[in-house]
Amino acid sequence: MASPAAPRSPEPLQPVAGVLGLLLPGLGHFYLGHTRRGGLIFTGVMGLFASGLLIGGIDSVDRREDFIWFLGQGLVGPTAFAVDYTHQHHFKVADARKVMVDPSTGRTVPLLRSAGPDEFRNPESGQAVPIVMGSDGVGSATYTDRAGRSVTVRPAYPPNAKGLGRMNELGTLFTTLAGFLNLICVLDALWHHRAERRGPGRGRVGGSVGGVGAGSVRRTLKTPGGFS
Amino acid sequence: MGTHRRLILAATALLALPGSAALAQGVSPRLPYRPFIDPLPLHDWWWVFLVPLALGIAVVYKAVQMKDSAGYPRAVAVMALQIVLGMVALGAASYLLVAVYVRFIAEWLAG
Questions:
Q1: Taking a C-beta distance cutoff of 8 angstroms, is the pair B26, B42 a contact?
Q2: Helix B50-65, helix A35-56: angle, nearest 10
Q3: Are residue B67 and residue B105 in the same domain, yes or no?
Q4: ipTM of this model?
Q5: CA neighbor of B40 nearest in space, from A69, A89, A165
Q6: Are residues B72 and B98 in the same domain?
Q7: A11, A36, A40, best to mutate vs chain B, most B CBs in 10 Å
Q8: Is B30 near chain A, with CB under 8 Å?
């Protein structure tokens, strides 16, 4: 008669691993000693996020225009916030004709919006500058810098192309799915045993979801079949 | 044209060989394509991206769910295939619902 299976210890809460997983996908599992699993999570989540940016452009991540989607994208971690910050502060143009209330300061500021196909972005003030097409088909834009000098840029292009249609949908979907998948990984890391080392004369232990008795040793498992 | 841009265009052109006209339209001389900043000019080939999407989901999900790494690549491939086939089946079912069933009901109601 087969002996009954040993009772499994409850999954310990790993708050540090959860926080690390939110900071960088896979880092939580890496901290727990599951280096291979962490590497695969990092590759998958960041690969999806980067693919979304490649497909839909930087316009795929937009906290102001697509806030609901950004709730998912933000789960990727600081990377998503950095991309959104770059998008808002280095690609969007300030529309002097429309205003909005800045939530952080409560002051009225020019509305930030994506540049049109015939607009250049003043690199100093962020104001939209119209692109004037020359007879040779090359556009130029003239803006005034902080010193009051007139600066002409030629050829002048919009800071980015506004994402439209399928490509924008796909880019948004890729980046949002990356965030939700990272949420699954963070929840997994929160309740996860640390990887154990194989001892002499013992079978494979730890290195898997819910490995038993892996409380204190945080070292990479090198077992061929393990998943550390 | 910079080497960086030429490499990206060559890679995207692999996907767009039959529809290279669409690629040429997207990269206009006024606005050169800049990877990670501008959307890929492959609007007619959007469905191709279902494959890397399914693959990415499978890589992460199986990394979390599997107890050991034995058979991991195979499990990822099978799950990605299941997702793609499931999406195709859902698309076909939606088409049948709208183009056949709803049309039949509308014509039946109209007498």
A1: yes
A2: 160
A3: yes
A4: 0.77
A5: A165
A6: yes
A7: A40
A8: yes
The domain of B22 spans 3-41
- Residues in B closer than 8 angstroms to A72, CB to CB, are none
CB contact under 8 A, B37 and A160: yes
pTM comes to 0.78
B31 reaches A (C-beta below 8 A): yes
- pLDDT tens for B92-103 read 999 999 999 999
Q: Tens digits of per-residue pLDDT, B9-49?
A: 555 544 443 333 334 343 344 567 899 999 998 889 999 99
Secondary structure (H, E, C), A167-225: HHHHHHHHHHHHHHHHHHHHHHHHECCCCCCCCCCCCCCCCCCCCCCCCCCCCCCCCCC
Do residues B28 and B57 both lie within one domain?
no
Same domain flag for B28 and B58: no
Question: To the nearest whole angstrom, how far is the Cα of A147 from the nearest Cα of chain B?
Answer: 29
Tokens of A73: 């994208």
Look-up: residue for tokens 């279902």? B50
| Terminal-to-terminal C-alpha distance of chain B | 63
Looking at the structure, tell me whether residues B36 and B76 fall in a common domain.
no
> Looking at this protein, which amino acid is placed at residue B8?
I
Identify whether residues B105 and B78 lie together within a single domain: yes
Nearest CA in chain B to A134: B30
When divided into structural domains, chain B yields a total of: 2
* Burial class, A141, CB count within 10 angstroms (exposed 0-12 / middle 13-18 / buried 19+): buried
Q: Give the helix/strand (H/E) hosting A142.
A: strand A139-144
Same domain flag for B36 and B52: no
